[in-house]
Specification:
719 residues; mainly beta
Amino acid sequence: MANIKKNFNFRNGVQVDDDNLLVTDTGLVGIGTTIPVEALDIRGNVVVTGFTSSSTAQIGILTVTKFEPTQIVGAGLSVFSGIVTAVGSGILTYFGDARNLQGMPTSQWEDKDVGLGFTSIYNTGGNVGVGTEDPRSTFQVGNNVDAGEKGVGISSVGNINMTGILTATTLIGNLTGDVTGRITGDLVGDINSSGISTFVALDVNGDSDFDGHTHIDNMSVSGVSTFASNIVAQGNLDVTGELDVDGGASIDNVQIGITNDNEIDTSTGNLTIDSAGGQVIIDDDLSVTGVSTFSDVIEAPSGMNKVPSLYMNQSNLPNAGDYHGLFAHVHGTGRGYFSHAMGWYELVNKDLFGVVGTGTERYNIGVTSISNLIVSGTATFNGNIAASSIDVPNATVTTKLGVGLTNTPASDIQVTKSGNADIQICGTGGIAALNVGREVGTSKTHTSQIRFGGGAGAPYSSGESLDIINYDVGNFNYHLGAGNVPGLKGDFVWHKGLNSARLMTLTGIGGSLGIGITTPSTNLHVIGAATVSGDVNVGNNLVVAGALLGNVEGTLTGNVQGTLAGNSNTTVGISTLNNLSVAGVATFTTGIESEAVGIGTTVTDNAPLRVNPDNEDRFFVGTNGFIGIKTSSELENVVINASQVNASIGQVAVGATVLKSSVDFADAGTVTTRFMLPPKITGTQRNNLTGVIAGAMIYNTSNNRLQVFNGTVWKDCFT
């Protein structure tokens, strides 16, 4: 091969083959690529046999036979074999076999394999401290609790001594010491207190066993109380409700319920009820099985009401006006009646089978307090149901259900409380789901679901996943401030973890989406790198702050600002540019073909050629051939509009292609319109003319005369 000793200067770069070697005109060198992005861009393997010096290197995989650096600076270091020596006060993070590491603490830490398939690390002796250099317990966090300082100490026998707050889901074992705060959950075990235990409120759902003396200032018992032994009351025994004594009570010579038949018996003689006030008041019904003898008429204290009696027919009833409020039974009808407002009213009848009325009547019983209500069939409630709790296998509410502080719910189901309100759906062993849709059943056609716990057909849904599913074919919509609330400030924010930084934000005002930024300034604002594997469609401007690297293929619509480092080489086809701004000299070797050209101004659809932006300086050519000079308007039947222009022309001809004189109007217009009109003004307007010289001609509309100025006066051209 011949030797060539000569310098070559390539101003626009040099290229060897397609991609073997490329030197751009900007000084970038590419080997194995035609688009170098660095001063030296090598795509492929590099073999260097000599000394290589580099101040900064970014290498994916580096294979080195002998590596002797003086300094290694990076985010991390991984060494598979060899010796790593850490010098200085910095932190060295190491992963792997550390059996040969030197300079580490030689305390009591050792590995232990007990044959269970794993190796544990343990401390052979001494104490372990976290946040302290002087641990006094086997394991101590913080300061010494025994010295009155704040911390946690755990001894080798399991004792825990702490000064802070203990939060535990489950606490098993004996608790010794004072407990300040609430115990929430099940307490399985005994509470052994040698002193006095004070409870502001004690709710015991099960049995309570008090072996010693129990002193209770005020005891309210809503349920059944069972006393196995005697009840000794030093003072009065005040029973507000019912006194139920199963074993009987002995009151002097009066015995109650000793024969298990709810009777009041006497041990000897008759039972005499004698009151000091002279009246015996019985609040409930009085049933007498034997013969009762009354020495006088039985009347109420007012003397108006009588004791109800039996009547054979309704005609036998006494005058209702005389016995207002009297209850009576009519044997002929088998019904009960009461007197009111000068008439007798039938009472609601219940037959032997439990049917009230005839089965077709409806009765409004008002407010009813029922301790236990058992309904075997369907129960319909037209009004509100106020209850502390309702336990039903299946319940149907035809109108609305209110929970909490409302008797008139505004929605089908409304929960209103003064504090927190919570609705919980819990599937302890499976899927917990809330279904919202337009179908009854489980076909999942026109419905949606919010569920937790996974489900079939969802590959990314596990037992720890939350799914929001629309089983229909409609939209999945998010609305923020749907009530058009003024001053809306909320955003759509994505987090990963509670109280974590924002990952993505979609602003509620303007609809801007930010990735890596909480306050996006554009519709899509990304902080960091973005990778798009498919096409990117930009509806408006594409602004690139850095370099645009790579080939641009396809149609480029919009402004290209900045430096185009490379060639725009179009060998075939037509390059269409909407706006072309050339700061320097533009040279066109053949010609320019364009639908519109603007020089110093923008183009419009009706003006393919526009020069200068202002009307007083504008020149344009319209699509219909009209020409405007110092104007932007097109006049009807006027091809050239220069109404605001003073023109100086050496010769002019109208309707002629060859000028026969300096001013040639001989062939102007058509044969039927071939006449000339001088300026038409009134006599007053003529007298106000300025700068008039001899030869001036006008048509005076005041006297309909053609007049010529001779330098002194206006002369008529005809009489």
